[in-house]
Amino acid sequence: MSVHRSAPEGLSSAALAAQAHDVPARDGGLSRLCHLRAPGTSVVLELPSDGLPVVLHWGPGLGELTGDDLEAMFRGVQPHTANSRIYTQTSVSVLPQHSTGWLGRPGLAGSRSGRAWSVQLDQVRHEVSPSGTDGNDRDGAPAVGGGQPVEVRSVAIDEASQLEVVTELQLHPSGVVRLRASVRNLGDPYVVTALEPALPVPPEADELLDMAGRHTLERMPQRRPFAVGAWVRESRGGRPGHDSGTLLCAGRPGFAFRSGRVWGVHLAYSGNQVLYAERTFNGWRLLRAGELLMPGEVVLEHGESYTTPWLTASWGEGLDALSHRFHHLLRSRPQHPRHPRPVLLNTWEAVYFDHDLQRLYELADRAAAVGVERFVLDDGWFRGRRGEHAGLGDWYVDEDVYPDGLHPLVERVRSLGMEFGLWFEPEMVNLDSDLAREHPEWLFDAGHGPGMPSRNQHELDLGQPEAYAYVLERVSALVEEYRIDYVKWDHNRPLIDAGHQPHGEPGLHRHTEALYRMLAELRRRHPALEIESCCGGGGRIDMGILEHTDRVWASDCNDPHDRQTIQRWTSLLLPPEVVGAHIGPPVSHTTARAHGLTYRAGTAMWGHLGIEWDITEASPTELQELAAWVRLHREHRDLLHTGTVVRADLPEPALRVEGVVDEDRQRALYAVTAVDRPLTWPPGRVPLPGLDPERRYHVRPQPPGDDHPGVGYPGKPPWMTHGVILPGRVLDEVGIEAPPLHPDQLVLIRVEGVGEPPG
Ligand code: DGJ
């Protein structure tokens, strides 16, 4: 084995370190032990001379460890081998292999016409880069900002199978681990069936959490014991889906937001995928994920390779800490949206398909008057699109509805000082469209025609070069012509029977790659353009799509009661500034439930704020209140969109406390919310977590988020009238009395540091 170390160039965060030490390994070989460090996080790897990396520890920072410490640790964690390494499996790599005695699901599955199906790696080269930097381990405080990751790249060859396998494991300054694998074919054509890297978690991780849901009720959490066997979450509709597992966590039983050590993995990918937690009879617990490949979807010719999406993993003492690391990783990307997120108005729930210029003018006038900064024209503007049955694919402005194109509307919007956004659904086609009539060969077809319709629409195959070129040209030309600031990119059906014409082979992998390419090309051509990933609401929320877009639409449900839960669990992965949250009409079109403005706005406040309501019908009082909410959001969005998201653990399930604390812990905003009727009355104390324990804070209700009919009946707790000054430690450990809230009411609380911060 050779270990190559590159120079520590390009390491902008001095808080990362990689340290390596050689030890004699099992079977007389040589292993290098490698300690990767980020603030609060350590990853200790064994890099064997004959195998891929083995994770010995992934979790809390271990501080400085000498070479002797690493060696002792290695010996200290070795299990007995008895008389069979198959039964005891003393080590399992980040790509577990059948040939090493792994009896679970193999990390690489594939074959060359029935041969080369079991991989045994014989030459392995590990490269650690950069190395030798000085670590600074501040346990519990993840790094903020950019910086290069430390990376271990391992290249292995199976000569007999004529395959090269590469794994890349990175530890980012945020403490997030990213892992991916690739396979390169060195022989005759090789079919990849599955390539799924894995990260182990310790036995204390005995409870699983992931998400479930459906259209308009996405990201509902579900828990279960981490039992022997596999808990498998598959997405086969060409996108993660509304029921996407999103984040698969394993932790100490009962792990909560503020306590209980927990690990979680997410696949940064927007197509078919599988997430699974696997526990074996001999004690291994793995969190794994990969692209879910259809038969024959990836066939490698000689010299070709296939690389998995990034398995993106975090850990924390509680879900909040795990979530902070993901947020920090995303916020440290160069393309992360940094300028203030413009408050937008989206026309969908205001006009649906009924596009009337005068009405849209009126909507735009009112939007500008309440402080909206971006006007987004939703579905219904293009040729033939008078309803759901026709028009998708014909990306030309409808001459009947807009005889002068969109120019008059765009000019009106701009003259009011707002940006202009436009809706597209570029991957979809109605059979009643010129596109489908002229180019049926551009549609997916697995050999039975265009297949089953869903919302009257079918699927365009972006893997068809001509279809790709047409869509790219149309979207780009419209962006150019109207100087569009924002594209809402929708996707309203699962992709099934996605066969690439003329032969019908599976085309989703190629389609997803083409989608990423097109989004990247649009941003290259139009650097100021922002793109939203919408998928009938939250059907395509993942870090893969977020590499190419600026926000996601969390759900088609604007009912604040459901949004409380949808946003809470979406925010586990994504920070609020990339999650769209809109103030809907008084009666939700999804649930028919009615809510006052305080609850609707006080819930939407916590994301990238928008309005999706026919405000031409709003009363003068409602408009005034709406303007106050928009002002409040604009006043606090620097905090809301850069601060640390905190969620309290409360024994009372009817109540929630969530907040955002700024980086200096000088300022915070919280919401105390009743999603149901508390069992006890008065409801008791609630903590305000995340503040500096040593600092005093002024705590008071934040208007207009303090005023519902009934709040204060039969009286308010005194702090709501007079405010209170308390140390952060008291606010977290003792709390304050919860406001008396009816179901679906909330109170916003403003918290500001008093005096100088402690030195
Ligand atoms: C589904 C989206 O999620 C909605 O916001 C809206 O854009 C409709 N599609 C339009 O068809």
TrEMBL record:
Domain named Glycosyl hydrolase family 36 N-terminal: residues = 51-300
Coiled-coil-forming residues are none
Q: What is this protein called?
A: Alpha-galactosidase
The UniProt keyword set, sorted, is: Glycosidase, Hydrolase
Which residues are in the Glycosyl hydrolase family 36 C-terminal domain? Answer: 660-740
Where in this protein does the record put region Disordered?
125-148, 685-715
The UniProt entry's sequence similarity note says:
Belongs to the glycosyl hydrolase.
Q: Which residues form the active site?
A: D490 (nucleophile), D556 (proton donor)
Q: Which domain of life is it from?
A: Bacteria
Under the heading SUPFAM superfamilies, the entry gives: (Trans)glycosidases
Lineage of the organism: Bacteria, Bacillati, Actinomycetota, Actinomycetes, Propionibacteriales
For whether the record's keyword set contains Signal, the answer is: no
